[in-house]
Amino acid sequence: MHSSALLLFLACSLFLNGTIAELICEDLPTELCAFSIASSGKRCVLETTIDEASNKKYTCKTSQVLADKLSGYIENDQCVASCGLGRESVGISSDAFLKPGFAASLCSPECYENCPNIVDLYYNLAAGEGVLLPELCSKQRRSSLRGVFGFLGNGYAAGGDAPAPAPF
Fold first, then answer.
1. Please, are residues 22 and 42 in contact by the beta-carbon 8 Å criterion?
2. Whole-prediction pTM
């Protein structure tokens, strides 16, 4: 009895494995695009375009940014919310760090400990700006205002000589 159940399970697993489609950013609805990762391991990005009637239109595209450990992944709404983000986030940039409260949300246990996709993305974005996310979060935990001002004190908000965000 057990061997036939095991055989049926294996047969179904092989069948399902062969029929599961790849996750392609361009096939995602725009409300699932931001913070998703294609099967190729490249991050999906929400882009805006203007049509002939001057209406803003959103499309989901595959970026050239590779996710470190995940592929074929759609971020859940709970992580998007607990990390202080929104599904309407257009593009991939470190600009979110300039929003009041973003560092506190990103560094919160709900986000930092439970949302590795988002933490990985912003870890890499912060590193591109010369900031280590674990240090920023440590400062954030010690003093929420000092942590944010420590990041901004590097010249990013004041128009100093911060490196330009890398184009994605």
1. no
2. 0.69
The length of the chain in residues reads 168
Asked whether 74 and 118 are in contact (CB, 8 A), the reply is no
Distances (CA, A) of 3 to 9, 12, 15: 10, 14, 18
- Partnered with residue 47 across adjacent β-strands are 59
Report pLDDT digits (tens) over 82-141.
999 998 889 888 888 888 899 999 999 999 999 999 999 999 999 999 999 999 999 888
At 47, list the tokens: 């882009």
By the 8 A CB rule, do 57 and 72 touch?
no
Q: DSSP states of 67-136 as a string?
A: PSS--SB---HHHHHHTT--TT-BS--GGGGGSTTHHHHHHSHHHHTT-HHHHHHHHHHHHHTT--HHHH
Query: CA-CA-CA-CA torsion for 95, 157, 128, 75, nearest 10 degrees?
Result: -20
**Using one digit for the tens of pLDDT, what is the confidence trace for 49-80?**
888 888 999 999 999 999 988 899 999 999 99
Give the domain ranges of the chain.
Answer: 20-156
**Cα angle value 7/9/12 (rounded, 5°):** 110
